[in-house]
Design goal:
Blueprint (H helix, E strand, L loop, with lengths): L1 H14 L25 H15 L7 H7 L3 H11 L3
Helix pairs in contact: 1-2, 1-4
Length: 86
């Protein structure tokens, strides 16, 4: 799972153009929104598209479920691991 977490950190950096951030500076347990990385809803859309493209996952239209998946890098890795089609 650590490899997948690192890949997701790299995907976050690349897809959101966080040029001054290194994967090792992203706490896998920290919240991605508000606190932590401070991402917003536009970032969530961009990241969701990047996850779909890279891993073939489909995000739910259920906002509460999507928020749960986007809670942290660990949550995203768990979601991708359980859902990926590639």
């Amino acid at each position: 799972m650590q490899t997948l977490e690192r890949e997701i950190k790299e995907l976050i950096i690349a897809s959101l153009a966080l040029e001054d951030t290194a994967p090792e500076n992203i706490d896998a347990q920290a919240p991605l929104f508000v606190e932590g990385l401070g991402l917003d809803s536009i970032d969530a859309l961009e990241l969701g598209l990047a996850l779909q493209k890279r891993y073939g996952v489909t995000l739910s239209a259920d906002a509460a479920e999507t928020r749960r998946h986007f809670k942290s890098v660990v949550a995203l890795a768990s979601f991708v691991s359980a859902s990926r089609t590639r």
